[in-house]
Design brief:
Blueprint: H1 24-35, H2 49-72, H3 79-92, E1 96-97, E2 110-113, E3 116-118, E4 133-142, E5 145-154, H4 160-177, H5 186-199, E6 203-204, E7 210-212, E8 219-223, E9 240-243, E10 246-248, E11 254-256, E12 264-266, E13 272-274, E14 277-281, E15 286-290
Antiparallel strand pairs: 1-4, 2-4, 3-12, 4-5, 6-10, 7-8, 9-14, 10-13, 11-12, 14-15
Helix pairs in contact: 2-3, 4-5
């Protein structure tokens, strides 16, 4: 990265402060890290205070909709009904579901049941039954700002094996969060997630990961959970990205449904579980924006 600002120019972050009193030392540190061979974020990845506030307002809607689903999801409900709730509640609060028509996606949310890894398309023909596990993934656009998170739900009496998978998948995020800190690396977080999943006998999907988000639905960086410490992009204050590992009970292999071009399934037919949180890197750690 190259810096063209003078010490007394206004800082690029929009704070109104002089560059020397704001982000000059920050940028100089990033240049040193880049010169050392590391991947560093460009300024457009780093969110300003105003942008962060807008993203948090979007996240309030995202969280509220997932809370409502948590209260009402039940056996006998179709995934189409869940999608209708997402649309109605999101728009009632002034937002709009970001997935609709994103690269051709046909619905307002993703509902992935049992061996569906992600991007399950809501349908009136998919009826939740006792023993199912389902990931409901929703994303909100509000006043041009984006939020994104997902939760797992157990329908009725779920087998101990499925229940454990759901529990460990959530714990994988908790392990990853411990590594989210300024001037660390995304690979630190990715390896923590990977190691915890494998130590519990599970695998982590390789082809699909997390992403930056805030001003667009999907931004840089792409976030892997099969990475190693000291690699991937440098995490710095103002970065916002998702942590959303897909944890498989069986093997790591997946395939995409040829019929719809979206839904990913486990190759061996065994269940998969995923939670997703949206995270802001702060000066001293992290803040969960949406969950």
């Amino acid at each position: 990265m190259s810096i063209k600002l003078g010490r007394n120019d206004k800082c690029w972050c929009g704070s109104g402060k002089k560059y020397k009193a704001c982000h000059q030392a920050f940028d100089e540190k990033m240049i040193r890290m880049k010169d050392a061979g590391h991947i560093v974020p460009e300024h457009d990845i780093i969110k300003t205070a105003e942008q962060i506030q807008g993203i948090k307002e979007s996240a309030k809607v995202n969280i509220a909709v997932l809370d409502y689903i948590a209260e009402h999801i039940k056996e006998g409900m179709s995934t189409e009904e869940i999608d209708k709730i997402v649309y109605e509640k999101t728009t009632l609060m002034g937002g709009f579901p970001a997935p609709l028509n994103y690269q051709g996606f046909p619905k307002h949310s993703c509902t992935s049941v049992n061996n569906q890894v992600c991007h399950g398309i809501p349908s009136k023909d998919v009826i939740l039954k006792e023993g199912d596990i389902i990931n409901v993934d929703i994303s909100t656009r509000l006043n041009g700002y984006y939020s994104d998170s997902s939760r797992m739900f157990c329908i009725g009496k779920v087998s101990p094996a499925k229940k454990r998978l759901v529990k460990v998948a959530r714990e994988c995020i908790d392990e990853g969060l411990k590594e989210v800190k300024p001037w660390g690396f995304l690979g630190d977080m990715g390896q923590a997630v990977h190691d915890y999943a494998f130590s519990n006998g599970y695998t982590v999907v390789r082809e699909i990961g997390g992403h930056g988000i805030g001003l667009e639905f999907h931004e840089d960086p792409w976030v892997s959970y099969n990475s190693t410490r000291g690699t991937e992009m440098l995490m710095v204050p103002g970065m916002i990205f998702t942590i959303e590992p897909m944890i498989n009970m069986g093997g790591v292999e997946i395939f995409i449904d040829d019929a719809n071009g979206w839904t990913a399934y486990t190759e061996d037919g065994k269940p998969s579980a995923q939670w997703e949180v949206q995270v802001l890197v702060t000066e001293d750690g992290y803040e969960i924006i949406s969950y």
